Amino acid sequence: MLCLRTLFESNEEKSRHTSFKRRRKLILDWMMVVTLLFLMSYELIGRAFHEWLGIGMLFLVIGHHIMNIRWSKAALDAVRNAFVEQRKSQFLMGINRDIEVYNHITSKQRIEKEIKKMNDLVAV
């Protein structure tokens, strides 16, 4: 009973932590949206405020990428795995092509030997 209670509490803490992270990401995303809207109204806000907002936007984008590093890693792994699979298939296709060429050459040699044998039999 005690183990189940601690297990349940740890799951509750995990969900609380997950919802806190999700809320923090959403707040950051909305801050980026609002900052971007202000950045697009350059004539209304002036040059100095526009530049300060641009610097703030840089930090928001960096924070956004830090918070979503797991997504970036997963995307990079997917690209890397696709590239590795492509290279594997190209390698295997190359081996298959080499085998086909070898079989063609050897079958051609066998046919030539058979023709030579037939010519020798006909000549006798």
Bulk shape: elongated
Largest sheet: none
Mean pLDDT, as a whole number? 81
Global Rg:
34 Å
SSE string? HHHH
Quaternary state, please? single chain
What structural category do the secondary elements indicate?
Answer: mainly alpha
Question: What is the count of β-strands?
Answer: 0
Strand % is under 5%
Summarize the structure.
The protein has helices at residues 2-40, 42-45, 47-67, 69-123. By secondary structure, it is an all-alpha fold.
Structure notes:
By secondary structure, the protein is mostly helical. The protein has four helices and no strands. It has helices spanning 2-40, 42-45, 47-67, 69-123. Helix 1 (2-40) runs antiparallel to helix 3. The model has no long low-confidence stretch (mean pLDDT 81).
Layout of secondary structure:
Elements: H1 2-40, H2 42-45, H3 47-67, H4 69-123
Helix pairs in contact: 1-3
Features of this protein?
mainly alpha, 124 residues, single chain, 4 helices, 0% strand, elongated
